[in-house]
Amino acid sequence: MSFRIDEIVLRRIRMPLVHFFETSFGRTYERAMVLVEVKCGGLSGWGEVTCGENPFYNEEWTDSAWLILKDFVAPRVLNHEFASADEVGGRSAHIRGHNMARGGLEAACWDLEARLNDTSLWKQIGGGARKEIPCGVSIGIQDTVPQLLKKIETEVNDGYQRIKVKIKPGWDVDVIREIRAQFPGIKLMADANSAYTLADIDRLKRLDEFYLMMIEQPLAHDEIIDHVQLQAALQTPICLDECIRSAHQAEQAIRMKACGIINIKLGRVGGFAEAKRVHDVAMAHNVPVWCGGMLEAGIGRAHNIALATLPNFVLPGDVSASKRYWKQDIIRPAVETTANGTIITRDNPGFGYDIDLDFLHSITERWETLR
Known about the structure:
- The chain has helices at residues 62-77, 99-116, 121-124, 145-157, 173-182, 201-205, 224-233, 247-255, 272-284, 298-307, 357-362, and strands at 3-4, 7-23, 26-40, 43-49, 81-82, 132-134, 136-139, 162-166, 188-191, 215-216, 238-240, 261-264, 289-291, 331-332, 342-344, 354-355, 364-370.
- By secondary structure, the protein is α/β, with parallel strands linked by helices.
- The strands form five sheets. The protein has a seven-stranded parallel β-sheet with strand order 7-8-9-10-11-12-13, with helices on one face. Strands 4-3-2-17 form a four-stranded antiparallel β-sheet, sandwiched between helices.
- The longest helix has 18 residues, at 99-116.
- The model has no long low-confidence stretch (mean pLDDT 96).
């Protein structure tokens, strides 16, 4: 069904995390996020911009996303006739970078199209390979190793199928050794968020002894070539995250043997259309993918659930229960996991959950309607 966007509403919200989350970039206590609502024919589609509060993960941050959406993306999509949501990203593809801002609106259009068709978002994107999404958790750098071990114990007892821990120089080999000593059988991976260089190759090789599922993005965010050299020296598969912003870059990385696994983040690649293309490239080369997380609120979390129903998402992703991050989420019901560490997909139209409009209004710092 074709559609024309009549109105776009931007909202900036602020939500405190249940517990701080630390990576090699720094420590986060609360999230400031931009939500995008697109309207057509009396229905609304919702998207979430997944960038952080600072331009550390990539060039984007909350305030830049607002400006890009308002001044550059919205004027290109308002009152334009789209044959399908698959066309939306192309209207702003000439904007360099800023995939998360563009992807937040693009994802909202997929949600809108699903609602116009009275179908679920996962069906609209061509998913449905699984009705239950295997879930993992991402645990940030803690103040002490015992504190980290306690958190891992809690998540394992809650049934999560994979544990990811953040590492950085000085918080890596010895920490992973202690984790393995206490949890010898868990599926474990380490995420460096670009904290290392090739000068650290001998240190990173020491992680091979801990039979990790993968080491995620050990080198620079834009450095595919050095990852080729590092992967050749490691037994542990490298998973690329920040390096992969498009299907073309995924194809390059795979051909060059820079990685053995790819993390797909909806915002990082600019929305569902490009995420599906990355997925298809990886599947054609027998490279597994999984869904990465960016401390999303409920809308972004629901979008990740839909994405993870595509067939090549064969590894547990960072799609976990709302309560791990928020005392109260902006959707109803909150996302929950089963005792087996899975999330059951919902068949409701769109992304499958209701917006808690009263709570959303109470945490909204700024909003603007674009027509």
